[in-house]
Amino acid sequence: GASVHKICAGQVIIDAVGVVKELIENAVDASANVIEIHLYDHGFEKIIVADNGHGISDTDVHTIARKHHTSKLRKFEDLDGVHTFGFRGEALNSLSSLSSLSIHTRNASSAGKMITFEKDGGTSSVEEKRRGHIGTTVSVFELFRDVPVRRQEWQINKKKEGCRIMSIIQSYAIISTGIKIVAYHHDGTKRNASATLVTSGTSLASNLSEVFGTQFVGTLDHVEFSFEDSHVRGMISKRNTESCRLSNDRRFFYVNGRPVDLPKMARCIAETYKNFLGKSHAAVVLNFEIPTDRYDVNVTPDKRKILLHDESRLVESFRRKFQEYFEAAEV
Ligand code: ADP
Ligand code: MG
Predict the structure, then answer these.
(1) At residue 255, does pLDDT exceed 50?
(2) How confident is the model at residue 63 (pLDDT cuts 50, 70, 90)?
(3) How far is the CA of 178 from the centre of ligand 1 (A)?
């Protein structure tokens, strides 16, 4: 029944951060090279994600928010190199039951459509609506409108939630090359918006300097090496105490471009900094390229936790290579 559905939905989207994350991933999956995120009153009133990706196909328009309907490959193992974030077809379904959801989309062969949804994920209407360029704009009003307690709690914390939303936007903006990402904050009542984040997508270093400033990037070194059948690439605090002191402990981990938590890798890096410099504070922005059959992403609803098969061995071989990298700097 409806309540069962809501429990399931609640597991996919547990907060506004999850909404923004899912919508950004959909835009990336649609091959957008410009993504705009609009937060009204820190997302409490409205969240809009607009992209210039390929749009929703005419055949999908009536079914996209049906549970497990996805135009993407169903199993991560099937992807084999081809990489999409989505593969479960649950995000829009959840959103249709948790908020007022509307989608304005245009693909290469249509003039534009506005889609609104029933609470059970069914399409309530599809209307022709002109749209200038190909792409998709997803609007989420009044998230958790039917869960008053949840909304009250959120109202009190909306600024804090807004910060969490910004940090998830940062994590995608930093790693995304070839995609311009702009986040706007709209002050509740006022119509005027201010851009709070702009990345051009030119390179990891340029994205980082656009997000955190050139001074911050000046404290970092490029790092890249292979270990076992994996490869790691990114930027980390220069191997001296002064850089570590300045570099602010910012940590961003990715597996094949997907933002994830890698607590064991994080600890291993902190320990190495500590061993060599006496301080464990360091900024870390690392993308691990790991064969897709060596991990599972479908462990938690928000997909941030991943299950690395044979994790301790992988961490240990990373540790050895990372230490060598450190030793090389001392010469
Ligand atoms: P999933 O991403 O796992 O496929 P979602 O519920 O996030 O599931 O999206 C359902 C489907 O809607 C996607 O498979 C895709 O076909 C379509 N879709 C969603 N967002 C976009 C977008 N921004 N551009 C084009 N198609 C989209
Ligand atoms: Mg998705």
Answers:
(1) yes
(2) confident
(3) 20
Name which of 51, 55, 57, 56 is nearest 23 in CA terms.
51
Q: Per residue in 275-300, pLDDT tens?
A: 999 887 899 999 999 998 898 876 66
Which residue, by CA, sits nearest to atom 12 of ligand 1? Answer: 64
Q: Identify the pLDDT of residue 299.
A: 60
**Distance from C-alpha of 180 to C-alpha of 199, rounded to nearest angstrom:** 6
Please tell me the distance between residue 325's alpha carbon and the centre of ligand 1 in angstroms. 41
As a whole number of angstroms, the distance between CA 267 and CA 279 comes to: 13
| Ligand 1, pocket-test mutation among 70, 83, 102, 139, most atoms within 8 A of CB | 70
ipTM value, please give it: 0.99
d(C-alpha 141, C-alpha 300), whole Å = 25
Residue of 266, 220, 271 lying closest to 247 (CA atoms): 220
At 189 the pLDDT is: 65
Say if CB 110 and CB 131 are below 8 A apart: no
Q: Pick the closest to residue 171 from 85, 291, 241 (CA basis).
A: 85
d(CA 52, CA 120): 28
- Cα–Cα distance measured from residue 31 to residue 54, given in angstroms and rounded to the nearest whole number: 7
Structural domains of the chain ordered from first start: 2-199 (3.30.565.10), 213-330 (3.30.230.10)
20 three-state secondary structure: helix
Mean pLDDT of 41-58: 96
Best residue for ligand 1 mutational test, from 47, 64, 82, 97 (most atoms within 8 Å of Cβ): 64
CA 238 to ligand 2 centroid distance, Å: 36
Could you give the CA distance from residue 70 to residue 102 in angstroms, rounded to a whole number? 18
**pLDDT computed for residue 194 by the predictor:** 87
